[in-house]
Amino acid sequence: MTFLRSDYSTSSPLQLPPFDYQPRPYNGPYADEVCRYSQRDTTGLSSENTELKLRLQVMEQQAKLRDSM
């Protein structure tokens, strides 16, 4: 299957038809601000994950001690 036709000229670039669309100005946060939020969230989640792993280890150790009695 071929999508190119021989009657199309490749010498001139394609042009968009005129249109009157004007995008609204961007009012959101800047990229560096988004990165800071993301890093802060990642750091917080990492700390929480470490804490939960330690709690789980303690619970597993307590269960082993109970089972051995």
Automatic annotation (TrEMBL):
Region (Disordered): 1-27
Entry's Gene Ontology cellular component terms: nucleus
GO molecular function term, any single one: DNA-binding transcription factor activity
Protein name, as recorded: Uncharacterized protein
Organism per entry: Brassica cretica
